[in-house]
Please model this.
Amino acid sequence: MMLEARDLVLEDRLAHVGLSLRPGAITAICGPNGAGKSSLLEALAGLLDVDSGSIVLGDRDLASYQPRERAQAIGYLPQEHTVSWDVPVRRLVELGRMPHGDKRTEPVEAALQALDVEHLADRRAQSLSGGETARVLLARVLAGEPQWILADEPLAALDIGHQLALLKHLRRAADSGIGVVLVLHDLSHAMNHADRVVVLDGGTLAADDEPHRALAAEVVERVWQTQVEWIERGDRMALMPL
Ligand SMILES: Nc1ncnc2c1ncn2[C@@H]1O[C@H](COP(=O)(O)OP(=O)(O)OP(=O)(O)O)[C@@H](O)[C@H]1O
Model:
């Protein structure tokens, strides 16, 4: 099922943004601070009242979905990683099954393993480090086995090893048909791991294309106002500030 933003307008935050996202791919949303990335992701998750326009999942307006049905389809990880309940980690991840109303343990164990947090399963959730918290909250999203994973800066608190492990996992999820949408500040990760990059600037679309085009040095210079050069090594690219 496609996930579409149709002519979205949100006061001072998004202006006439239109996007059509296909499942089975990783889409990165990039842009400078305040560009509207989190707002767009929240809107795509059906969590914002927009001034005009709509979000359409499949052939229906997302607003017409029951909250439970929407939560089964879309797993959303917000930018703020707050844990309000000091329950054991496994219990927190089990809450990801809530939209399904079942107690299946297999997706919970798979999510704990995928995010490398099995060893933390019996720890109190509020006792975790920042990166551990981020991984546990993403495990809760994965435990719900959503058709779409929408994650706001999922790599920000992670060390490089866990960043790459998560990107590999998300690639496998995308290859299995899940739609993955990530807000990313790290343009090298977006370049190397996304199938498509949406660049926002001041609440409008500055680019929406395959990574090499959307993040070409001239686009980065224009949108981020920073001079850069891409260094190529094999099939990997690294961003070099000039
Ligand atoms: N709840 C809100 N009400 C009004 N304006 C908001 C709200 N949240 C964010 N904004 C403003 O909307 C604009 C876009 O914010 P948003 O959080 O979507 O940007 P972003 O691209 O995710 O930024 P960052 O990289 O800093 O996380 C900013 O100018 C921000 O100050």
